[in-house]
Amino acid sequence: MRARIVLLLLSMVLLVSGCSSFNRDWKKAGDQSFEGMEGRWVGRWQSDYNQHNGALRCLITKREGNTYHTRFHANYKWGLITVSYPYDMDMTLTPQGNTFRFTGQADLGKLAGGLYHYDGNGTIRRIDINYRADKDHGTFQLLRPEDSE
């Protein structure tokens, strides 16, 4: 029992530090100008498996070629508590005319559902992504912050 409490506390510390880093980078990105799909995004995630949902923010930065680094910060309710969960992954963005095709995957760990696969479409104003894992599937819908207000 004591080992579980220590593991839970350690996990919470890691999540809080990840959230702090994301929030700092989120504010910094608000003062920068980006091209194409890069920059800040806000929206919601929705699980079609269990109907859970929550607020979602994303920072997208170009790496090389068609590879973009995506940093997600998702909120979900656990009883009366709102929990924040940050995670990163590289996605491939393939241009298709005025739209982009998104594909990627991320292992969120056993407690969060394991390996998730992502695919979707977007423009420079809106992104729609489907996700799926062994025990969950759903959608992300993201807009530019100025378009969501």
Describe this structure in words.
The structure is a single chain. By secondary structure, this protein is of the alpha+beta class. The chain has one domain (2-148): Quinohemoprotein amine dehydrogenase alpha subunit, domain 2 (Lipocalin), CATH 2.40.128. It is built from 2 helices and 8 strands; from the N terminus they run αββββββββα. Strands 1-2-3-4-5-6-7-8 form an 8-stranded antiparallel beta barrel. It starts with a helix and ends with a helix.
Residue runs with pLDDT of under 50 for 5 or more positions: 1-18
CATH superfamily: Quinohemoprotein amine dehydrogenase alpha subunit, domain 2
Q: Supply the number of helical segments.
A: 2
Distance, first to last CA: 46 Å
Shape: globular
Which percent bin holds the helix content?
10-25%
Please describe the structure with a list of short key phrases separated by commas or semicolons.
single chain; 149 residues; 2 helices; alpha+beta; eight-stranded antiparallel β-barrel; 21% helix; 54% strand
Explain briefly what this protein structure is.
The protein has 149 residues and is of the alpha+beta class. Helix content is 21%, strand content 54%.
Topology at a glance:
Elements: H1 2-29, E1 39-47, E2 53-62, E3 67-78, E4 81-96, E5 99-107, E6 115-122, E7 126-133, E8 136-143, H2 145-148
Antiparallel strand pairs: 1-2, 1-8, 2-3, 3-4, 4-5, 5-6, 6-7, 7-8
